[in-house]
Write a structure and sequence with these properties.
Elements lengths: L3 H21 L5 H11 L3 H11 L5 H10 L4 H23 L6 H24 L1
Helix pairs in contact: 2-5, 3-5, 5-6
Keywords: Membrane, Transmembrane, Transmembrane helix
């Protein structure tokens, strides 16, 4: 009976370590998200809020990890994330109204969407 609290405490500590490792460790996608946000001059908190609210069918962490593993540059990753970031802006503004905190990010996302459009049109012309 004396060992139970110690074992329970150890399991809790290991659980916390695993949680934080999965959230912020090298296989979390968090590192590439931080680099992309810094590359485009978007604050990390705004970047992740937009991404979380704009990604469909997959977690934002999995999306970032797959883009990182694909070997794309930060600019290319930003172009691929632009539709999700745009949806995130739309959803958050629909929910909370226009916010000053998203003003700079909106300009960056608009530029990335414009860069994404020619490649989308070329892909649809090929298909």
């Amino acid at each position: 009976m004396g060992y139970f609290p110690g074992v329970l405490g150890l399991v809790a500590v290991i659980g916390l370590i695993v949680f934080f490792w999965r959230q912020y460790g090298p296989t979390s996608g968090h590192a590439v998200g931080n680099r992309v946000a810094a590359h485009f001059g978007i604050s990390r908190s705004v970047f992740y809020a937009l991404l979380e609210n704009g990604v469909r069918d997959v977690s934002s962490r999995d999306l970032l990890l797959s883009l990182d593993r694909s070997g794309l540059s930060l600019e290319e990753i930003g172009v691929r994330l632009a539709p999700s970031l745009s949806r995130g802006i739309e959803r958050l503004e629909k929910r909370f109204g226009p916010q000053d905190i998203y003003a700079d990010a909106k300009l960056v996302v608009a530029r990335l969407l414009a860069a994404a459009e020619p490649s989308d049109e070329a892909a649809s012309a090929e298909g």
